[in-house]
Amino acid sequence: MRTFLKLVILAAIVGAGIGLWVTAPNRVDAAKFDGLTGDAARGETVFTAAGCASCHHTKGAEDKLVLTGGMEFVSDFGTFYAPNISPHPQEGIGDWTLEEFANAVTRGVNPKGQHYYPAFPYTAYTKMADQDLVDLWSYVQTLPASDVASKPHDVGFPFNIRRSVGGWKFLFMSDDYVMEADGNERGRYLVESLAHCAECHTPRNPVGALDKSRWMGGAPNPSGSGTIPPLTPDKLDWSAEDVAYYLESGFTPTFDAVGGHMAEVVENFAHLSAEDRNAVAAYIKALPPLGD
Fold first, then answer.
1. Does residue 10 sit in helix, strand or coil?
2. Where is the Cytochrome c domain (predicted)?
3. How far is 30 from 44, CA to CA, in rounded Å?
4. What is each CA distance from 144 to 41, 85, 94, 191, 230, in whole angstroms?
5. Whole-angstrom Cα distance, residue 251 to residue 45?
């Protein structure tokens, strides 16, 4: 019996050690930013493509560059609220370092070493280019500061155990691309990383991770009303020109107007270059059909 108890205790210690290793935060190597200088003008383009204001401005606010946060995102795991990411030193991220910003955006780790919930699309931003990250940081620091405190998430047990998010990351977070570039690296980068299109257009598994076997195959609307349409060619018969025009104007080939959260996405894409919109359209048209 004594030998058995020792083995049980040893197994528990080993299991706990493995669990701590698996769920530990994975941080960036700060040295990779050495020698990089941020350019706020270029950072504005990254900010727009990444849709930062779409989630972090106060709903209904006229000035969408005041990143007070507060927008709610309802899920099966609870309700998440976008935080204040303005340059305010206490309520926002004004006292962060570049390394802390990089950890948050590309690793989903806050300055205290805690995991962010993947309602924040760092699983897409993990592929963000180092220079783009530095440029984005430079631009965000030029924006107005807001002293409004971030609203805490409404997440119950066991999902409120942030350490467990590390296990989720271990299983599902990857910086690998889903599609081959086939000469369209810019389109793939915009869709799979900066614009994080799959966050809405790809269905999820029971624990909230993207089902990459149904990439861009459409998904339930997070708001609980309707569905997000599929973008694969067997479901969307638009031409590349139709897709690019929609991203610029918000009008479909049948002259329906964009609505819902997609209106924010179109507003962002309308400020990008025609080359970027065409690159995204080319990516969409290159998606493989999924069938029924």
1. helix
2. 38-144, 182-288
3. 22
4. 16, 10, 10, 28, 37
5. 23
- Going by their DSSP bridges, the two strands 72-75 and 78-81 should be labelled as antiparallel
Kindly report the pTM of this predicted structure: 0.90
**Cα–Cα distance, 270 to 257 (Å, whole number):** 14
What token pair was written down for 238?
């638009």
First to last CA, the chain: 57
Name the β-bridge partners of 81.
72
What string of pLDDT tens digits covers the 292 residues of the chain? Answer: 666 554 555 555 555 555 555 577 888 999 999 999 999 999 999 999 999 999 998 876 667 889 999 888 888 888 999 999 999 999 999 999 999 999 999 999 999 999 999 999 999 999 999 999 999 999 999 999 999 999 999 988 877 888 889 999 999 999 999 999 999 999 999 999 999 999 999 999 998 999 999 999 999 887 667 788 999 999 999 999 999 999 999 999 988 888 888 889 999 999 999 999 999 999 999 999 987 6
Tokens of 146: 């807001």
What are the chain's domains? 36-172 (1.10.760.10), 185-285 (1.10.760)
Pair 215, 231: CB distance under 8 Å: no
